[in-house]
Amino acid sequence: MNETVTIPRSVEWNETHITILNQQKLPLETEYLELKEIKDVWEAIFSLKVRGAPAIGITAAYGLALAAQSYQTESIIKFKQLLQKDRDYLASSRPTAVNLFWALDRLLSSVENVSSVNEAKTTLIHEAICIQIEDEEVCRQIGEHALSLFKDGDKILTICNAGSIATAKYGTALAPFYLAKEKGIELKVFASETRPVLQGARLTTWELMKAGVDVTLITDNMAAQTILTKGINAVIVGADRIAANGDTANKIGTFGLALLAKAFNIPFYVAAPLSTIDLKTNTGADIPIEERNADEVTHISGTRIAPEGVKVYNPAFDVTPNELITAIITEKGIIRGNYTEALANLF
Ligand SMILES: CSC[C@H]1O[C@H](OP(=O)(O)O)[C@H](O)[C@@H]1O
């Protein structure tokens, strides 16, 4: 059986602007925004209108290519100085997902040996488009490998949104569910709501329901009870940065799920492209963890739920130590065991 499945996309290049699906408005409104200037791109990434490690990288790449089109210089040296400045500006939008830096630096490298401004402008657009096209294929391959770990009828828990709208298409942790749907394999997904920004409740449920994937929403504090009573077979999550030793930064709450998976003796999988692996970062302790505005914790959908003036701690990510990860699934296959060696061998 090969079913046609609706899989949403969140970023589109339109020559004079970038169109993004405003992920802050989902699921109540399907709003598309046109990003015409570099400051729009920075703001869209910072405010999570576009989010998810690969989607951030793709949008930033288009943003840098777009900015470069307006440089008024014939000097390639001046052009590259302006490009570096804009690269650094976009790189300051969010600190944890390494795909942002990977994509921006890939654009810089693409023009390293280019000596004419016109050629550099065309090359940058071409490179950004390649990043998006490649990410779609990479996510499909991650999905194929991840699907080989599941069997018909399995119930799988996930957190945040590592889905199609967090990437070029298919997603990372959610990719196997789209492929299973296409192939007629029944998998049941349990989506953890993911406080404070509710990517699980708002985005994962939205995109999986659109595709007809069986999804059940739980609040974050229901995870242990759900694993126990629903017979969850595995946990699968995405990643924002995987250190050289396999320690993995992902949405806050992921570490807790990994500990639960160990306690219940079920596998805990991380699904991510090679662009999320950062061999320059030795261990999880070296990964910068973004701390976001207190409003995200004290308010839900603009309504205050905590007393005025309360102290707040709002880390957006946590780090799961490598020993809690059963396997890391990339486009090149599934790796287990000694991550330091296996990850290095991927490159
Ligand atoms: C496909 S990676 C998705 C990744 O992005 C998330 O973070 P955010 O919503 O803050 O951009 C999260 O950690 C997910 O696993």
TrEMBL record:
Pfam families, alphabetized: IF-2B
Keyword Isomerase set for record: yes
InterPro entries linked to this entry: IF-2B-related, IF-M1Pi, IF_2B-like_C, Initiation_fac_2B_a/b/d, M1Pi_N, NagB/RpiA_transferase-like
Chain positions of site Transition state stabilizer: C160
GO BP, sorted A to Z: L-methionine salvage from methylthioadenosine
EC code(s) of this entry: 5.3.1.23
Keyword Isomerase applies: yes
Molecular-function annotations in GO: S-methyl-5-thioribose-1-phosphate isomerase activity
UniProt binding sites for substrate: R51, G52, A53, R94, Q199, N250, K251
Active-site residues from the entry: D240 (proton donor)
Recorded superkingdom: Bacteria
UniProt pathway annotation: Amino-acid biosynthesis; L-methionine biosynthesis via salvage pathway; L-methionine from S-methyl-5-thio-alpha-D-ribose 1-phosphate: step 1/6
Catalyzed reaction equations: 5-(methylsulfanyl)-alpha-D-ribose 1-phosphate = 5-(methylsulfanyl)-D-ribulose 1-phosphate
Entry keywords, A to Z: Amino-acid biosynthesis, Isomerase, Methionine biosynthesis
EC main group: isomerase
Family: Belongs to the EIF-2B alpha/beta/delta subunits family. MtnA subfamily.
Role summary: Catalyzes the interconversion of methylthioribose-1-phosphate (MTR-1-P) into methylthioribulose-1-phosphate (MTRu-1-P).
Protein name: Methylthioribose-1-phosphate isomerase
